[in-house]
């Protein structure tokens, strides 16, 4: 792979961006990239921004769950203790995450790769949907989401979808 050629990736912001230095002129964030609907193809890629204007935007304008398109250069490790990361040169927000904050917010929508989980504070059950809105099912509690997704994916594989 030519690491001198820029690559373009679409993914979801995993968690809030953080400053990469004391002045906020650089930023770091993690991007969840899932090129297919298979959970095994999903990866979390550390990203770094060194352009001060882009870093400022990444720190203050992005929210977890935003769908992003990033362009940058893949940096492979030179030693076993270095991580793989993407040096981001451009960043675009494709979709903003729904904002579920404030004193009246009693529910949270959280992304698990190509799935969305609806956590309601009034119940222990968690409703799960595909990102296209197709219902997957209801997990009796948050600890059972993995089992629900595994069963759903097995049914999809058996039906050939």
What would you say this structure looks like, in words?
The chain has helices spanning 52-61, 145-159, and strands spanning 7-13, 18-19, 27-33, 43-49, 67-75, 85-95, 107-112, 115-120, 126-130, 135-139. The longest helix has 15 residues, at 145-159. Strands 1-3-4-6-5 form a 5-stranded mixed beta barrel. A hairpin with a 2-residue loop joins β7 (107-112) and β8 (115-120). It is built from 2 helices and 10 strands; from the N terminus they run ββββαββββββα. It has 161 residues and is α+β, with helices and mostly antiparallel strands. The two termini are 32 Å apart. The protein is 16% helix and 40% strand. The protein is globular and about 45 Å long.
Q: Element order, helices and strands?
A: EEEEHEEEEEEH
Low-confidence stretches: none
- Helix share bin: 10-25%
Number of helices: 2
């Amino acid at each position: 792979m030519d690491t001198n050629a820029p690559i373009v990736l679409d993914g979801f912001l995993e968690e809030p961006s953080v400053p990469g230095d004391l002045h906020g002129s650089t930023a770091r964030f993690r991007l969840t990239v899932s090129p297919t609907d298979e959970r095994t193809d999903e990866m979390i890629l550390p990203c770094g921004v060194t352009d001060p204007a882009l870093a400022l935007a990444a720190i203050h304008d992005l929210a977890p769950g935003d769908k992003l398109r990033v362009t940058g250069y893949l940096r492979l490790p030179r030693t076993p203790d270095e991580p793989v990361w993407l040096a981001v040169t451009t960043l675009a927000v494709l979709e903003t995450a729904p904002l579920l904050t404030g004193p009246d917010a009693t529910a949270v929508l959280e992304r698990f790769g190509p799935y969305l989980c609806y956590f309601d504070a009034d119940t222990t059950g968690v409703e799960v949907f595909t990102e296209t809105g197709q219902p997957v099912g209801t997990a009796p509690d948050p600890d059972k989401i993995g089992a629900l997704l595994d069963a759903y994916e097995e049914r999809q594989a058996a039906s050939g979808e």
